[in-house]
Amino acid sequence: MARNQLTEIEGGITWLLVIATSGTMESDDPQLKGTLVALKTCRAAAQQEAYLLAHAASSSGRAITPRRIEKLGALLRRRLAAGDPAFRMA
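Above: the chain's sequence. Below: its structure in token form.
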């Protein structure tokens, strides 16, 4: 999600720069400056979010993998079949 957001923001910044360099909008237009500053602020936030998500997944060592899902499913099936009745009721 953060990467998609980052791509969209980068596209917006590029589009604004193209508009300014093509002469469609004056480069000293206050609206251009305000929009560019807002997009750069959003970009910084999206970059931070992407960084945190990437490092949280890699540093925790607790990633959800297909193998872990299989192990959990097998454990739940065993507990439901032969475990404590209170577990089945929960």
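The two ends are 34 Å apart (CA to CA).
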